[in-house]
Design goal:
The structure is a homodimer of 327-residue chains. Chain A has 327 residues and is an alpha/beta fold. Chain A is 45% helix and 18% strand. The first copy, chain A, contains 12 helices and 12 strands. The longest helix of chain A is centred in the first third of the chain and has 16 residues. Chain A is elongated, with a radius of gyration of 25 Å. The relative contact order of chain A is 0.13. Chains A and B meet through helix 4, helix 5, strand 2, helix 6 and helix 7 of A and helix 4, helix 5, strand 2, helix 6 and helix 7 of B. The structure holds a DNA duplex (30 and 30 nucleotides).
Chain lengths: 327, 327
DNA sequence: ACGGCCTCATGAAACGTTTAATGTACGGGT
DNA sequence: ACCCGTACATTAAACGTTTCATGAGGCCGT
């Protein structure tokens, strides 16, 4: 493995000079600079970031630990975060916890050991323990799609209670009296909040169907269960568009017409919602802006000129009505 | 920042002992071990991976540099790779090049500097330059969804020529004489190969529509262009399901019936294809297996007991016929 | 009683950088 | 002729680990 030492030898200079060529070229005379540069080229020298980082004490990477990369909503968050990070000359790496607590923990300690510049994360449960390590190492983190008190950390989220209410109100207003609510596990704050939102709305009898994963397959299962309920609900609100797509598939498969026999409302308004068999009514969240804002908060927190105050940014969701819920 | 030294002091032992407690607990007497462990606990010590790695010379991370995280196909590849990596006690980080060459280059050098254990990548163009750095540092890499000669690297891919031919043959066989082919940029090998596959099939007049990005929005645009062609093709083959979904949206929007007025065939058979407005016929690729296989090849290459020979694994795609192309 | 072995703990070197402090040479102003 | 400043280049320390070689006791068998 070729190191700075080999380059120095080859170019007939000291290692300090090589380092300067790489990091502070203006300190080095023209002639030496080119000589060193060609030595680097010829030997294929690649500087070792771990040594550099060991010396510097901080890395140039911010990490994004995300609930489910299979959900386009989170992919958009990644995109937003990448934009902001690149604007500041930082790189982003993404890790996928796939909603498994043990994976989340394992990634968190991996990242703490890597001494990443900061972490954006959408936690599964209450990630108390692992985050304590971050707080101690001084690694800043920002919660994404999850609100916490400012004293604990900055966060960027969407008002899920409002979102749940929005969807439910829409269904009640369009005349539905028996509504199913397909929700994810209670361990996810998003799901708890959306359920709370649903509860704030009266005027319909709500049957809750809980699923383990917020994906299309679980949606199909929930759809099947839904068809077995009697008397059958006339509308269903799904905690996410993937579930809604699955439910829709189940309805189509069973010959139940949407929306006349079963209205469907999803959540996230991802790009597939509009393209679905029956275009989906959905609760839109500004995913990209969430990612961008979170990254900016994080970057501000790590910036040299004094730590910023913590903030809890909350976006407001918006109902997008499409055919799947039209009377 | 608390280091091994602080722990040692607190526990009244040497730093070597602390290190042993962490890495080779059996070498340390019970009593000391627990004393050190509580010191670690109390101080919240987190070991510094960069120092560790500097000493060790290699990391425990494998990286995945992917063309487009917005495409569920690649997300499934990530999942497969994660499975395999976790089986071997390694962690995976994903980076998204978003089909931009400069981002790809920047990530590749980032990863080279990080001295990651290995890299799985689906390159945009011909990533000669940046990969040379890997070859020199001895960082192994495996190409994903892209075949290269064994002498250069291992690779795991799907026969895209066969896939393109499969789709096209299906359309010709079902009686279409004017077919549009919505393809991505030629810089992507996948697109070149699928086009080559399309060309091997005769019996229909093919109009190629090229788009820059393989996403739903580009598909909508292509759909609009498609409607302007006269005489209008009766079928369209899209290089990927996202494009196909976009085209489908455009057709539905314009009141063109699918499949009777316009048959559509996509590629990847992602989970949204089956859930689409009109369920999409698509060419299925075993994404998860691709990711898993690639990771296994990579891990084998980095294993201690001698380097394995390189391999080029090629999977065969499979046509899944659904309503969007049924006569 | 003594050598040898085993168990456990330690000292010190090494990994590849960056950077502060120091050194050298040379030209110009007095 | 001397001093100083400028412009480069170098020496050496430091970052936080891991590990090898060594040391200190205690126990066993002879």
């Amino acid at each position: 493995m070729v190191g700075i030492k080999d380059v120095a030898e080859r170019a007939g200079v000291s290692i300090a000079t090589v380092s300067n060529v790489v990091n502070h070229p203006h300190l080095v005379a023209e002639a030496t600079r080119t000589r060193v540069r060609s030595a680097i080229e010829e030997l294929g020298y690649v500087r070792d970031e771990s040594a550099r980082q060991l010396r510097a004490g901080r890395s140039r990477i911010i990490a994004l630990l995300v609930l489910d990369l299979g959900n386009p909503f989170f992919v958009d968050i990644v995109r937003g975060a990448e934009e902001a990070a690149h604007d500041h000359g930082l790189n982003v790496i993404s890790c996928n916890s796939g909603q498994r607590v043990e994976l989340e923990t394992s990634y968190l300690s991996l990242l703490a050991e890597q001494r990443v510049r900061g972490v954006l994360l959408s936690p599964v449960g209450t990630p108390g323990g692992s985050l304590a390590a971050f707080r101690r190492t001084g690694t800043p983190y920002v919660l994404v799609d999850r609100k916490v008190p400012e004293k604990d950390a900055s966060s960027v989220s969407v008002d899920d209670v409002a979102g749940g209410a929005l969807a439910m109100r829409h269904l009640v207003d369009t005349g539905h009296e028996r509504v199913a609510f397909v929700n994810g596990p209670d361990i996810l704050a998003q799901c708890r909040d959306r359920r709370a939102g649903v509860r704030t709305v009266s005027g319909a009898e709500v049957t809750v169907l809980e699923v383990d994963h917020l994906d299309v397959a679980s949606g199909r299962d929930a759809g099947a269960r839904l068809l077995g309920i009697s008397p059958r609900p006339t509308a269903v609100f799904c905690a996410n568009d993937l579930l809604a797509l699955g439910v829709l598939q189940a309805m189509v498969g069973a010959g139940v017409r949407v929306p006349s026999e079963m209205a469907i409302v999803g959540y996230d308004d991802n790009e597939f919602a509009a393209a679905a068999a029956v275009p989906l009514t959905s609760v839109r969240q500004p995913a990209r802006r969430i990612g961008r804002t979170a990254a900016e908060l994080l970057i501000a927190e790590t910036s040299d000129d004094g730590p910023r105050e913590r903030r809890a940014v909350v976006f407001t969701p918006e109902l997008v009505v499409r055919r799947s819920s039209q009377v």
